[in-house]
Amino acid sequence: MDVFFGGHQHSYQRTLPVDNDGNSVDTTSCGPAPYTACTSPAYPIYVTNGAGGDSLYTDTSLCGVPVPANRGAWRGQIVVGEYGTVKATVQGTTMTIRFVTEDGVILDEAVITKYKHANSMLRALLHLFTQRGD
Length: 134
Fold this sequence. Notes:
Blueprint: E1 3-6, E2 12-15, E3 37-39, E4 45-49, H1 69-72, E5 75-79, E6 84-91, E7 94-101, E8 106-113, H2 115-132
């Protein structure tokens, strides 16, 4: 899995690539803050949007609860106090994820490119054609 989309939290959040246990964070594949250009991240990126309705959180501590030290390292981007939607587009091996407010303002954009899957697909296609004799 490369990207996980979920809902909740009354805010928008996008993590850095993080392993399933939350113990390892890939801090190198997404460039410097705000981590908007990710190339073949080692772990999945989690995108949570809870900004589509109900009440919104208004501070980044998420309802006044302090974020545990190891969890703060996960955060790539957080948007609070704004209603909006997540829009994802895929072209080839690149996915662009945007958080867009109800007024059409883009508050977060991340581009994720996965080269290893493209190479695997190319090898599979080459194998298929060589087996067919084309």
